[in-house]
TrEMBL record:
GO terms for molecular function: ubiquitin protein ligase activity. Gene3D superfamilies: Classic Zinc Finger. It comes from Holothuria leucospilota (Black long sea cucumber). SUPFAM superfamilies: B-box zinc-binding domain (SSF57845). The lineage of its organism: Eukaryota, Metazoa, Echinodermata, Eleutherozoa, Echinozoa. This is B box-type domain-containing protein.
């Protein structure tokens, strides 16, 4: 579920061209990538370091570049693969394969099903994720539909505003011309 939200936020942030806090420098800079392993934005220098350094070699598959997001080459599935596998809330060394719906979809491991989460509502992470992904994709499609309608309304409003300004300008000119003619006639009558 969070992947689609993160995708939209990431796309908005990276397309926004506003400076962000660089994870490497801890300064607000223009960013060129995002690392899901570090959970942070990267400036150009840190991004270069991330993809070339042996220290962050394991981060490469979890890093996405601005141009990939801007050109929409990063799909939901690609984004999901960039993220590190979720870890168990209790046993952080174990990968979470399940989630406890009773505990607000908390990621858990198999060992937890015999402990604190015994007899609770347990689901496989991928099944729940796929279900939520479908729902969010439908909602996202609706949002894109509304976005198109809003953009069309904006264009229509701009045209109406332009037409209204032109009509006001024409009316002002005709009123000024009428006033000038009336003023001229009045002066001519007063001179006789």
């Amino acid at each position: 579920m969070i992947n689609i939200i993160e995708y939209i936020q990431l796309q908005t942030t990276l397309n926004d061209e506003q400076a962000q806090q660089c994870f490497g420098y801890s300064k607000t800079l223009r960013v060129s990538a995002y690392c899901f392993k570090c959970n942070g934005f990267l400036c150009k220098a840190c991004h270069r370091f991330h993809v070339t350094s042996k220290i962050t070699e394991d981060h490469r598959p979890n890093t996405v570049a601005v141009e990939d997001v801007a050109s929409k080459r990063v799909s939901f599935d690609k984004l999901a693969s960039l993220k590190e596998a979720p870890r168990c809330y209790t046993h952080s060394e174990k990968v979470s394969e399940l989630c406890c719906k009773t505990c607000s979809n908390m990621p858990i491991c198999v060992a937890c099903t015999y402990g604190n989460h015994k007899s609770q509502d347990i689901y496989e992470v991928t099944a729940l994720a796929n279900e939520n992904r479908q729902k969010l994709e439908q909602k996202l499609a609706e949002v894109y539909t509304f976005e198109g309608g809003i953009l069309q309304m904006s264009d229509k409003l701009d045209k109406i505003k332009s037409d209204l300004n032109a009509a006001v300008s024409d009316k002002l000119k005709s009123t000024q011309m009428h006033y000038s003619r009336m003023e001229k006639r009045t002066r001519e009558k007063l001179q006789f």
